[in-house]
Design the sequence.
């Protein structure tokens, strides 16, 4: 257990539905990252926050994807009008700006299946 | 971030030492080399990070030659529980806004 939690761990939804995932980072970490991982591939960066500011979101896969971190603590990732191609593991990670940004602490992930 | 190249897969037996080599020919002066381990259905876990020569912790050793164009992750006396995917990444640890993962090396340890 890294101290980063994600909820839910698994989500099955029908195509066209909206889904929202939550990430609770390690409390003293001010940076929070979202990644997506498909079978046989390494994690793919989506977006990240420093405190409540979203500093990079150009890698979000489409305008159906959005992320928030309203109070600089937990974060949510929403996918609207899900498609079968959205099926993947969604990973959250956190780290402290006082330490190495290369050392990120990952949560267990949320596995999304779109039927 | 510098691109890395590592073997797709490796096999070993329990008790053996495993060395996984990563090539990063375009590594920049400020880049560090970082390795992550990932078990099925879990997020990646940081293993070790280094800049040059040798770094050792309770899990692994990292060997980096003087030109820094490659690095070797060494796992001593592997066990079945070391079966995982291992990722090599390079980046500036104070100016990295994201980690870029390749496909990693899938290590299978047999009894």
Sequence:
């Amino acid at each position: 257990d890294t101290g980063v939690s994600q909820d839910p761990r698994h989500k099955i939804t029908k195509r066209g539905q909206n889904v929202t995932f939550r990430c609770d980072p390690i409390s003293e970490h001010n940076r929070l990252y979202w990644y997506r991982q498909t079978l046989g591939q390494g994690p793919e960066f989506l977006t990240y926050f420093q405190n409540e500011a979203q500093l990079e979101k150009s890698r979000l896969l489409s305008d159906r994807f959005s992320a928030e971190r309203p109070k600089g603590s937990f974060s949510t990732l929403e996918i609207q009008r899900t498609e079968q191609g959205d099926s993947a593991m969604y990973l959250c990670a956190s780290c402290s700006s006082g330490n190495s940004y290369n050392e990120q602490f990952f949560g267990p992930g949320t596995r999304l299946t779109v039927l | 971030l510098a691109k890395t190249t590592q073997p797709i897969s490796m096999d070993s037996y329990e008790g053996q030492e495993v060395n996984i080599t990563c090539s990063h020919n375009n590594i920049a002066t400020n880049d560090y080399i970082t390795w992550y381990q990932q078990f099925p259905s879990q997020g990646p876990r940081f293993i070790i990070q280094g800049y040059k020569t040798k770094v050792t912790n309770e899990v692994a050793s990292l060997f980096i030659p003087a030109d820094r164009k490659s690095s070797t992750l060494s796992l001593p006396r592997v066990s079945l529980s070391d079966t995982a995917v291992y990722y090599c990444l390079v980046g500036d640890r104070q100016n990295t806004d994201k980690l870029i993962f390749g496909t990693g090396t899938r290590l299978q340890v047999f009894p």
The first strand of chain A starts at residue 5 and ends at 7. The interface with chain B takes residues 2, 4, 33, 35, 40-45, 48, 55-56, 59, 89, 91-93, 100-109, 111 of chain A (CB under 8 Å).
